[in-house]
Amino acid sequence: MIRATCLLIFFLSAMASAAAPAPMQVFIAGDSTAAEWGPEFYPQFGWGMVLKCAFDDDVTVRNYALSGRSSKSFIEEGQFARIEREMKAGDTLLIQFGHNDQKIGDRSRYTAPDGDYRTWLMRYVESARAKGVQPVLITPVARRLFEKGVLVDSHAPYAKAVREVAAQSGTPLIDLTADSMQWISKLGDESSKRYYLVYTREDRVPRFPNGSQDNSHFSELGARKVADLVATRLAELNLPVSKRIKASRPGLTRNTALGAPRCS
Fold this sequence. Notes:
Elements: H1 2-19, E1 24-30, E2 59-63, H2 71-76, H3 79-86, E3 92-96, H4 116-130, E4 134-138, E5 146-147, E6 150-151, H5 156-169, E7 173-174, H6 176-191, E8 196-199, E9 212-218, H7 220-236, H8 250-253
Parallel strand pairs: 1-2, 1-3, 3-4, 4-7
Antiparallel strand pairs: 5-6, 8-9
């Protein structure tokens, strides 16, 4: 009887282990729009800080995005080498650059959208594939730049390059430029301000006592929305990681700030 009970317990444990999904890591290589920002920078958030809210506990988001980096400098400074050491087969690598690749006066960061930008992007893709990691290319998230009431695509050549690299290399693509532009355009010039670091002195934001007109970086709610855009498209890609995206993501769709990168 004891032997039979032990066998039953062993069998049930084995079944549970087989049914449980294997742990997975999602790495982010990117710039300040995705980066981690400490509480001293609040209300500034990067979308990578809250992407974890799209997953259950069996997925770990490893956000290595850093302020000021381009597709070129992130590799040349050795930042990507840290990811290469830690990613393993079955993981996912999200790649989003473009904001700093535009800085034509800075030789350490500038990349030409029709030239070396594409070459650098392929470095990430090839490295991931060599390790059995799934790369996903992401077009640059939109700046909030309205001219005569119309949102301007300030990353057009770079977004085009990412789309073409993805198509030519067979790499899954999240067109965050298109999705974020549609979102911001629908909100309009005035209503979209709360999702970026746009404040007046009267808003009494401690970090910005004299106000702020930063239309590139996100407030907490902006970062949560962008993370939700990324999660929505990631769920549609039919990749192993796609099955790990939660259908309901209240940590990303909420309309009130939490004051910290929590999910609830």
